[in-house]
């Protein structure tokens, strides 16, 4: 029977935990590597609702993208996710920036959803040489509004924000989650658009001035496409384990 350690080792093969950025905290963050696993729940975030869902399914492990422990713990409230995981004897493996940059990881999955072609690295990580952001050619020419509408539909966004770069779009850069700062690299690469999850006001202003249609489509929406891909990959490697995608995991933002 496979263990949490076996699953960790397999993820480490295609998204090495050592390639994570220095600020990050990925890995087996809760539980024992020797725990035997028959059921695994996958979710972008581990929330109390996700823990309860895992417990109801009888899962011994949750695999998530965002680390369940990011900053050092100064207390352990009974309603906190680490406490709830321990209470239910559920382990947690979190693959964050190592999965962002991995082949078939977050950014590759986002590029696939956006139908980008001839995808190339936009900015490489100086330590690992992996791509922190990507760019490629769009499947057709878009106006700024058409491109924003396409992104919204492709990612299933309830709403999004975008700047009008004032140019037709034939190439776009991207970085899932909080990657707005790569818009400057996208401009240097000749892109007319850039897609990420979230963005500060000053970068939106800069994007407009640079003639870039910057689409802030939501942190959850730009990263969640990796979850079904990751689930399929794990299921193929561990066919005797039941892998389930969380139905309670969701983006927390609503639009009026």
How would you name the CATH homologous superfamily of the largest domain?
A: NIF3 (NGG1p interacting factor 3)-like
The CA-CA distance between the termini, in Å, is 49 Å
CATH class assignment of the largest domain: Alpha Beta
How much of the sequence lies in strands comes to 15-25%
Shape: elongated
Query: Can you give the mean pLDDT?
Result: 97
Helix content: 25-40%
Overall CATH architecture of the largest domain = 3-Layer(aba) Sandwich
SSE string, helices as H and strands as E:
HEEHEHEHHEEHEEHEHEHHE
Would you write up a description of this structure?
- This protein folds into 2 domains: 4-96, 3-Layer(aba) Sandwich (Udp-n-acetylmuramoylalanyl-d-glutamate--2,6- Diaminopimelate Ligase, Chain: A, domain 1), CATH 3.40.1390; 103-222, Udp-n-acetylmuramoylalanyl-d-glutamate--2,6- Diaminopimelate Ligase, Chain: A, domain 1.
- It contains 10 helices and 11 strands.
- The protein starts with a helix and ends in an 11-residue tail after the last strand.
- By secondary structure, it is an alpha/beta fold.
- The model has no long low-confidence stretch (mean pLDDT 97).
- The protein has helices at residues 4-14, 48-57, 81-87, 97-101, 106-113, 144-155, 183-188, 201-210, 219-223, 226-237, and strands spanning 27-30, 39-43, 61-64, 91-94, 117-124, 131-142, 161-162, 169-175, 193-196, 213-216, 242-245.
């Amino acid at each position: 029977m496979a263990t949490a350690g076996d699953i960790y080792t397999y993820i480490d093969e295609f998204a090495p935990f050592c390639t994570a950025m220095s600020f990050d905290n990925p890995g087996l963050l809760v539980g024992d590597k020797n725990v035997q696993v028959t059921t695994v729940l996958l979710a972008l975030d581990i929330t109390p609702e996700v823990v309860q869902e895992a417990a109801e399914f009888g899962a011994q492990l949750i695999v998530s993208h965002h680390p369940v422990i990011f900053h050092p713990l100064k207390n352990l409230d009974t309603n906190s996710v680490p406490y709830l995981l321990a209470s239910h004897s559920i382990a947690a493996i979190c693959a964050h920036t190592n999965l962002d940059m991995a082949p078939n990881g977050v950014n590759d999955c986002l590029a696939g959803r956006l139908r980008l072609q001839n995808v190339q690295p936009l900015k490489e990580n100086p330590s690992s040489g992996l791509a922190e952001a990507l760019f490629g050619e769009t499947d057709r020419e878009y106006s700024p509004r058409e491109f924003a509408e396409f992104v919204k539909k492709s990612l299933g966004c309830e709403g999004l924000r975008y700047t009008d770069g004032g140019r037709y779009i034939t190439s776009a850069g991207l970085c899932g989650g909080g990657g707005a700062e790569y818009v400057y690299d996208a401009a240097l690469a000749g892109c007319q658009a850039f897609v990420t999850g979230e963005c500060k006001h000053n970068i939106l202003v800069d994007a407009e001035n640079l003639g870039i249609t910057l689409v802030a489509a939501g942190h959850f929406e730009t990263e969640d496409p990796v979850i079904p891909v990751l689930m399929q990959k794990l299921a193929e490697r561990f066919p005797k384990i039941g892998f389930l995608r969380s139905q309670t995991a969701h983006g927390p933002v609503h639009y009026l």
